[in-house]
Amino acid sequence: MNTGIAHVKLGRTLLRERRYREAEQEILAGSEILSRQTSPSVIHVQAARNDLAAVYEALGEPEKAKTVRAELAATGK
To answer: Looking at the domain that runs over 2-74, which CATH code has it been given?
Structure first.
């Protein structure tokens, strides 16, 4: 699980540096690892989805951002 969290945090750092494609890759990698856990940290999963939506907005892909936000809303947060 720590590896997944590290990917998500690296993705956030890349997002803040406006390195959007790299951020997308790291966030997706982290999300994949976290989703395979029996009880992933809800905070980290939510953070990954929020960051991924921000990446898609920055890349001019609002439909992808909308989909990610809908998934986030469906999980209750």
So the answer is: 1.25.40
